[in-house]
Amino acid sequence: MDNLKVVIIGAGMGGLATGIALRQAGYEVEIYDKVSELRPAGAGISLWSNGVKVLNRLGLGKEIASIGGKMERIAYYSNTGEKLTDFSLSPLVEQVGQRPYPVSRTDLQQMLLDAFGTENVQLNSKCVAVEQDANSVTAIFEDGHKATGDVLIGADGTHSTVRRYLLGYASERRYVGYVNWNGLVPISDDLAPKDSWVIYVGEHKRASMMPVGGDRFYFFFDVPLPKGTVSEPEQRREELAGFFKGWAEPVQTLIQRLDPLKTNRVEIHDIEPLEKLAQGRVALLGDAGHSTAPDLGQGGCQAMEDALVLANCLLTTNLSVEDALKRYEAARKERTAQVILGARKRSDMTHGKDPEKTQQWYSALKDEDGSDIIAAISKTILAGPLH
């Protein structure tokens, strides 16, 4: 179908990647976001090979390689500093045909924004309602402004307005059971080797460092806590020092070195897999359609896959927009549900939902030569649209 006009709600990774893919397909694209400035949530993201392949397809291979971290190895340590396993990622790269790139979210967002063009992104535009008929679909904004097109994409994140319209009810977010702190620190040898993703595990908690561009580590800490705990940014360091008391020296060094005011603290949620991802001329994409815990590192990658599949569905059917979106839904529903449920299962294992299972995992890591972990990551990557 040619000459379509597409309205995208949300200028995050998913919305921008979709905008680029659809513009390259020859469509007219407008992106709207409620924020006054684009500041991504979270400090970093592990962009696994399936997400990188989409960026390669969009012509951004060189750009992502220049801002991504050179992650050559994965190492697990116990909380007291005992090395459990340490292995090369090159067998993974051979299996899937592309290296992963952990990346700062700000760098990734800027790269996508530069590729799409800021002049076609309207900020301060909060979508409050959606209307559609047989011939068009309209987004209505809080200030009374309207945007009408042939297709409307809800890429408006985990608290999506478009999702509520599409489902006819508000879907509850589900607390996964842990709090995550994350941020960026300069790479340094007393923290971890500069080409390794290093994870300390114990007491159902995790402390992790991953190389991203600009000679920085993206770090995160996970602690299982009841829902609703709060702390002030000024207290981040003391809070983490308490939770990780007695942990290995590099973890203590990281806590001392992080900037408490630039460290995010997030209660991790997901949503149950949805019954539908499309309705008429409206489709959901990224976290709006399948908000997942970060435990498989697939949240951003699934948004990238959505972008590519959606563009292909619109390009390859000439029946109708509705038909193209039905095909998109069919292609994405099961895949994204598997990622949500897989991440949830892994989170439970990592964070002591069943303490015995978590202990078994710690023990298994001592015998791990990398092949099981690589097989699991590879399976997730290769289940996507780009093999």
Describe this structure in words.
There is one protein chain. The protein is an alpha/beta fold and 387 residues long. 38% of the residues lie in helices and 26% in strands. It contains 13 helices and 18 strands. Strands 5-4-13-14-15-12-16 form a seven-stranded mixed sheet, sandwiched between helices. It has a six-stranded mixed sheet with strand order 7-2-1-11-18-17, with helices on both faces. β14 (205-212) and β15 (216-224) form a beta hairpin. α1 (13-24) runs parallel beside α5 (105-116), α2 packs parallel to α10 (299-316) and α4 (90-96) packs parallel to α13. The longest helix is centred in the C-terminal third of the chain and has 30 residues, at 321-350. The two termini are 26 Å apart. The mean pLDDT is 95.
Keywords:
single chain, 387 residues, alpha/beta, FAD/NAD(P)-binding domain, 7-stranded mixed beta sheet, 6-stranded mixed beta sheet, 38% helix, EC 1.14.13.113, FAD
- Biggest sheet layout: 7 strands, mixed
CATH topology: FAD/NAD(P)-binding domain
Number of helices: 13
Q: Report strand %.
A: 25-35%
Q: How does the overall form come out from the CA principal axes?
A: globular
What is the level-2 CATH architecture name? 3-Layer(bba) Sandwich
- Contiguous runs where pLDDT drops below 50 for at least 5 residues: none
Q: Could you say how many structural domains there are in total?
A: 1
| Main CATH class | Alpha Beta
The N- to C-terminal Cα distance equals 26 Å
Number of strands: 18
- Average pLDDT, all residues: 95
Rg on CA atoms, Å: 21 Å
What oligomerization state is this entry in? single chain
Strands of the largest sheet, in order across it?
5-4-13-14-15-12-16
Percent of residues in helices comes to 25-40%
Helix-and-strand structural type: alpha/beta
The CATH superfamily name is: FAD/NAD(P)-binding domain
Pfam families: FAD_binding_3 (PF01494)
Protein name: FAD-dependent urate hydroxylase
Catalytic activity: urate + NADH + O2 + H(+) = 5-hydroxyisourate + NAD(+) + H2O
InterPro entries: FAD-bd, FAD-dep_Monooxygenase_BioMet, FAD/NAD-bd_sf, HpxO
